[in-house]
């Protein structure tokens, strides 16, 4: 594998892990969400988890590629280009509302997680999570991306361990478990609407940050592949989590953090690792919604961003005191219904932007080739090449200087790997 392909693969994997980190805290981390959206429908919940895998792959590709195309700093930069003004405003306020709601739901989830593991008051875990969100928000964005993805491989390993335990352990009476699962309460009417609502809820939570993430990716192909791979990972996590909860639904069906209890029953040390992973995944989403909300309010004003973040985090901490389980039951379906408009807009936007995305891939590919040539002392970079480079930069959807600078950084990184 040459250095260019290696960098591309590493970037794709980093994007995929970050994608998982952004959306799983809201929809997967504790298992409580899976109970409400899939498990409570009995065996049909398995088909719902499979369907959601495909949808996450599609929408991951679409959102990240649109973000990369427009080099977006916030969701509003994309919506203004792909939809009518009034739709853009509705979606903007909806996502702002969602980020606001999920900020305190996730902080509440962190408190509930710590309470379940150590018996501490819920506000202690919420305070720790809030402090971490504020601290990380001032870090460099590349470091933030790495932090978002750090728990993805760990959760995959943990779930595989759980799956092996179920397969190799005592026989499970799946028929009885499915029947018992159907008796659990849910606020959703059927599995089809539940799948759409779940996808919409997760993307309402993650789209703002995913557009920001996509805007930091200069290679549209990397963005697309990262979205598809990330969606696949989310699907695998959703399906395995659903199966694991079904296998012990009689024990953990009403548990506030069922996956923590599941792993602790296997081994207390696994439970401790799962506690850390769940806390990290909740933090990922909590950070994502707070960060994207701060960016939406502050725009490109870094000083304003630094001033508004403490306010957002403190408000989230105070509102988290309402309790995690209660907030999930009420707020998640509400956000899901609001998010259906978001799903339609993204699908229509990507369909309309397909040609532009294909053209932009060609433009950036040629820009990259010219910048490689300019950086190579063994090649003659002519005045004609320089003129061509300027024209390509002007033709790009992104800001002329920004696109060139981003690609120059890729070239420099490539040179570093060759040394």
Automatic annotation (TrEMBL):
Organism superkingdom: Bacteria
Keyword Membrane: yes
InterPro entries membership: YkvI-like
Membrane spanning stretches: 12-31, 37-59, 90-110, 122-139, 146-167, 195-215, 227-249, 269-293, 305-324, 330-351
Protein biosynthesis as UniProt keyword: no
Keywords, comma-separated and alphabetical: Membrane, Transmembrane, Transmembrane helix
UniProt name for this protein: Membrane protein YkvI
Organism of derivation: Aerococcus kribbianus
